[in-house]
Amino acid sequence: MSLAPIDAATLYGLTGAVLVGIGLYGIVLHEGFIRRLLAFNLLGGGVFLLFGVIARRGAGAGFSGDPVPQALVITGVVVAFCATALAITLIERLAAEDDANDGDGSS
Amino acid sequence: MTPGLMATTPGGLLLVLAVVVPVIGILALWLVRWRAIEWVAIATLAINLVVSLATLQAVRASDASLVYLVGGWMPPLGLALRADGIAAVMMVMTGAIVAVTALYARGQFGFDPHGPERRRPMVFWTMLLAITGALNLIFVGEDLFNLYVALELLTFAAVPLVSLDGSRDTLAAALRYLVFALAGSVLYLLGVAVVYGAYGTLDLVVLAEMRGADGALLLAIALMTAGLIAKTALFPLHLWLPPAHAGAPAAASAILSALVVKGSFFLILGLWFDLLPPGLGAIGANGLGMLGAGAVIVGSVLALRQERLKLLVAYSTVAQIGYLFLVFPLATGSEAASPFASLAWTGGVLQLLAHAFAKAAMFMAAGLVYEAIGHDRIAGFKGLGRIAPITVLTMTLASVSLMGLPPSGGFSAKWLMLSAALGEGAWWWAVVILAGGLLAAGYVFRILVPAFSTPEAPAERKYPVAPVRECAALVLAVIAILIGFLPLAPWPLLAIGRIAQVSP
């Protein structure tokens, strides 16, 4: 603990910020839907890390962390999971349509 | 804050019903036979309309917000539901449009045992009810994270509607919509994290009391606004809207264009007028107004260039959304006692209402045109007035409101905004409003002129259409006109229970 120039919460916060940056870059500048979906997950991961940092910093009453942001993160993870599942279903259907069209074209 | 504000008020249960009734309806859909699905959905939406009307009546009667504390826990520990004047008006608007759309859609997604897609009716009716519930939650929600969940519900219900016909183009449009919406919600969530980190609560009323000129709060509002703008399809983040709204089936387009984009706009209104400390928003509000002006001009010009009716109507949505964002500079710049008593505030809400009814009618009419003549290419509209007179009448009435000709809701909205702009000496917004009206006249006459002209060869109607469906679209267009008969003055109703008024 004393070796590190910054404490754990700050380190996590910076990591979260970097993930948000990478995710935003990916979602704005990448073309393919799968890449953008992955970028969205990185972005979400960064935001969830920030919630963890906030939970740690807001700790009080003898707890090691504020439970409210943790509860929010759990909901957020479920929502992000659903979003990813929906997006993957759409991507699969799109790929299936493309395959079918290619098949029609070659045969 | 007066303690009375933070207790469940009589009639507070209505807010719970507004959120729960559509969800119960969705569950009931799975319990009944295929043939009964649409009737269960229509019955649910009828109950929802009654609940929203009762909410409006209760808010008007008590001249205060309805509040319901979930589980009896007071914020910041618990969650509160709250309907003020504007929320109640939004709920009634949603209830009415969704109910009429359901009557219109009964012909399209009705039970067909031999159809290729037996799941389509189930998906459509489930998502329609889900959108209703999610919108109601957005209107009555008071906790920023609760609102995030409502926004996501709305997105997840809206995206499948876009790709309902399963073609490649609509799947791609749905995916693109989903990517924009997800990026928007994550930015919103990031803002929520910043607010919680700085204030330790997410309740809007509690936050409005604690707010100060705080960098964290400004950053959070900037992040949340950026996210919500992507979901509202404000220029220049409108790219997803035209293919998504034009590709969906007509009934779904009506809901997406009239209501779904308004959900995220409603949250931006809340953030800027309830959460942002007064006096700090001038630069940001002008920025939003400039984006809105860009949307009015670019959306209208692109609408002028479309060959297909549904795409034209979708681009018109981009333009009309732009008008909504003129509220921010006009209402913050007004000299009225509070922004909620200003001309611009009422003008903005009227624009929201008039556009919702007119655009829903327009998309429904576009669907009927497609069914009547088998295509929606504007070049082939000659003689449409003879084949489908009621539909053309619907388009005409809706167009009158979109252009802003009197008497119509669109005229009242633009007149109030224009008066506000001239009253504040901000003539540049007036120029935008007038230019937008002229351009709108340009694109609607592109549809109406051929529709009313006499064809060389007598055109024939390809398929019969149930009169109920034509009348459903007509009813919405007539409501858009009738809104124009409301008094041209700030409505006291829209100022009831606004948070900024409550706290000193």
From TrEMBL, chain A:
Transmembrane portions of the chain: 12-30, 37-59, 71-91
Compartments where located: Cell membrane
Topology class, membrane: Multi-pass membrane protein
Any single Gene Ontology cellular-component annotation: plasma membrane
Major site of localization recorded for this protein: membrane
Coiled-coil region(s): none
Keywords recorded for this protein, A-Z: Cell membrane, Membrane, Transmembrane, Transmembrane helix
Family to which this protein belongs: Belongs to the CPA3 antiporters (TC 2.A.63) subunit C family.
Name of the protein in question: Multisubunit sodium/proton antiporter, MrpC subunit
Organism lineage: Bacteria, Pseudomonadati, Pseudomonadota, Alphaproteobacteria, Hyphomicrobiales
From TrEMBL, chain B:
Domain NADH:quinone oxidoreductase/Mrp antiporter transmembrane: 142-435
Pfam families: Proton_antipo_M (PF00361)
Membrane-spanning parts: 12-32, 39-59, 79-103, 123-141, 147-165, 177-199, 219-241, 253-273, 279-304, 311-332, 352-373, 385-406, 426-449, 470-489
GO cellular component terms listed in the entry, alphabetical order: endomembrane system; membrane
Domain of life per record: Bacteria
Bilayer topology: Multi-pass membrane protein
Compartment(s) of residence: Endomembrane system; Membrane
Record InterPro entries: CPA3_Na-H_Antiporter_A, ND/Mrp_TM
Coiled coil (UniProt feature): none
Keywords assigned by UniProt, alphabetized: Membrane, Transmembrane, Transmembrane helix
Name under which the protein is recorded: Multisubunit sodium/proton antiporter, MrpD subunit
Annotated source species: Kaistia soli DSM 19436
